Fold this sequence. Notes:
Blueprint: E1 2-6, H1 12-22, E2 27-30, E3 40-45, E4 61-64, H2 70-73, E5 84-85, H3 93-108, H4 111-119, E6 136-139, H5 143-154, E7 159-163, E8 173-176, H6 181-186, E9 190-193, H7 207-212, E10 217-221, H8 230-238, E11 242-247, H9 260-263, E12 267-269, H10 279-294
Parallel strand pairs: 1-2, 1-3, 3-4, 4-5, 6-7, 6-9, 7-8, 9-10, 10-11, 11-12
Helix pairs in contact: 3-5
The structure holds glyoxylic acid.
Amino acid sequence: xxxxxxxxxxxxxxxxxxxxxxxxxxxxxxxxxxGPPEEVRFALVWRPPPGMLSRFPNLEAILVLGAGVDxxxxxxxxxxxxxxxxLVEAGLPGPMSEYALAAVLHFQRSMxxxxxxxxxxxxLREPWQPASQWPVGVMGLxxxxxxxxxxxxxxxxxxxxxxxxPKELRGIExxxxxxxxxxxxxxxxxxxxxxxxxxxTRNILDAGAFAHMPRGAYVVNIGRGEHVADDDLVAAIDAxxxxxxxxxxxxxxxxxxxHAFWRHPKITVTPxxxxxxxxxxxxxxxxxxxxxxxxxxxxxxxxxxxxxx
Length: 309
Ligand code: GLV
């Protein structure tokens, strides 16, 4: 029985140690060294090359090393009958919510303006407005979005969330569906995106969405790069309608050196760093899922392929 590991962003040695302890009889292989394809029962992957997962006739599960599974579902050769499992919780909501809060504070406390004034040695204060005057909107209210919304709300910001399906979160105003998207954007001075990437959320933050946001608003993207129409974002900022953005995810990663985002004075770029997958936090779910499947029980985090998450 083989588990095949394939990820550019996670440490194979750390995962090998986890499996050596939990499943000593399982052979741990690192792509592209697969061994006999019929022995591969589990694949532990992050952004696997397209077509790779179709090579193993006895694959029982695809365990994704992240919360977002778009890169796996986008594979046209993805085997239809094999369950795809995503990380649920697994230590991700904490750092995601920290990043969101850091971004909101950064904008509310005028840090971008002070950074540029420091370069000119200019001593000039910005007017201060309390958190209560900075309504924040969180797009996506799943496990991660819920924690983001609560953490930002706990810091004193009026928080609303937007989701496709009905949700209830104490202290958070919830907007739902396409009909309420414009109103949600219209009341948000900072919009934080944590949606999963699906056909219906691709390019959701485009010129039309930005036009609904109030003048001087900010965008924070910790979902996927494809949620944002890059040129529309730059145009909305350059036109003075949006005040800036903090972006952690991009259509192409690493963000190509020539991309306009790198040098834009009102855009902060971070390298898909909002929430690392920490082995110690993710291992519990991965191990428990393999144990459950061996006992014939349903694993956690089964992706609904039609929904895309
Ligand atoms: C990271 O991007 C994840 O989906 O977990």
